[in-house]
Task: inverse folding
């Protein structure tokens, strides 16, 4: 049996990225078009990526909870559900989204061309919910001036943090991803003294060194986003990118986190927005407002390539046991294909 190929959720940070979230229009024709793209996506990626083999073009396709039922039916990933809105000191909104395309490359033109080809294939089948063009900002900093993604796991640790294993064998090699678009009030942030900014983030601004426990407040961003299971810290992989439109005065960070269970990110967001304990919230949220929030499942590249455009979704019920539709994941060896982990694992 050939190995299952995962999508490149742990591909290294690139200079450019596009985040495209769409909703599928009603009707069988729209569903057929989306299913057809599943099988065609790898070919589109190869055709465009071949124009610049050093461009490291990649694309991850994620599917939302409602869309999964419409497109594929049962069985469904065990932990796939709509994004959970959080109301605390600040508000984590839930917004529409059936399909996510996370496109990365060293050049924006490669990202743009792939996105254009994807949307051409989906013409009339989807509506755009959100589109963000991200860019690398100096030495991997966000627009608040701090390095982003320092604590990302790498290599095997990144794979272990993001890819589903025996806990859901039918979807082994897949992953979950949560996205949020944050808009920053830079005028308010820049009015905060640097020493206080460092306490809010939990790291020094210039050297990116983590503050010691005696100095770091319990409300520091990196204190609230540490998650432990059984006394052991567990990780996610962030692929965040800055974005903005200077003429509109819009400056932000696109948060995108991959994990093998969405519970990890959901707990992080609960700590940030409600507080740990309640009220001890993330002070970054005083100047950074979440304007989107969506959860997707990232099936394997093998799953996508095997999707039949006209195939009717399975009619088996949610409670029925289903034989695994995919073998155990193994490390792929491609550098341009949708599944690319072994040679591309690295820090985000």
Result:
């Amino acid at each position: 049996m050939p190995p299952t190929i995962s999508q490149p959720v742990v591909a290294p940070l690139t200079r450019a990225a596009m985040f495209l979230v769409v909703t599928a229009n009603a009707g069988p024709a729209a569903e057929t078009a989306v299913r057809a793209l599943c099988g065609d996506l790898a070919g589109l990626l190869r055709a465009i990526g071949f124009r610049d083999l050093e461009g490291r073009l990649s694309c991850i396709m994620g599917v939302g909870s409602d869309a999964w039922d419409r497109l594929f039916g049962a069985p469904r990933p065990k932990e796939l559900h709509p994004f959970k809105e959080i109301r605390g000191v600040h508000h984590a909104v839930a917004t529409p989204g059936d399909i996510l395309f996370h496109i990365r490359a060293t050049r924006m033109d490669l990202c743009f061309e792939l996105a254009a080809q994807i949307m051409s294939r989906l013409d009339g089948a989807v509506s755009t919910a959100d589109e963000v063009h991200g860019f690398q900002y100096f030495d991997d900093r966000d627009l608040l001036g701090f390095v982003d993604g320092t604590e990302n796991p790498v290599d095997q640790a990144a794979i272990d943090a993001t890819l589903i294993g025996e806990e859901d064998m039918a979807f082994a090699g897949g992953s979950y991803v949560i996205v949020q678009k944050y808009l920053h009030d830079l005028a308010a942030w820049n009015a905060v003294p640097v020493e206080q900014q460092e306490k809010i983030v939990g790291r020094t601004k210039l050297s990116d060194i983590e503050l010691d426990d005696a100095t770091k407040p319990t409300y520091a961003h990196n204190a609230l986003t540490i998650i432990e299971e059984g006394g052991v810290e567990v990780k996610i992989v962030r692929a965040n990118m800055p974005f903005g439109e200077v003429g509109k005065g819009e400056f932000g960070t696109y948060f995108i986190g991959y994990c093998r269970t969405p519970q990890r990110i959901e707990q992080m967001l609960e700590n940030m927005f409600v507080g740990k304990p309640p009220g001890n919230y993330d002070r970054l949220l005083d100047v950074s407002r979440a304007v989107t929030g969506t959860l997707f499942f990232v099936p394997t590249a093998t799953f996508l390539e095997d999707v039949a455009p006209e195939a009717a979704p399975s009619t088996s019920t949610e409670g029925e046991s289903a034989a695994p539709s995919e073998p155990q994941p193994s490390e792929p060896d491609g550098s341009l294909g949708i599944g690319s982990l072994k040679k591309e694992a690295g820090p985000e």
In short: The CA atoms of residues 275 and 281 lie 4 Å apart.
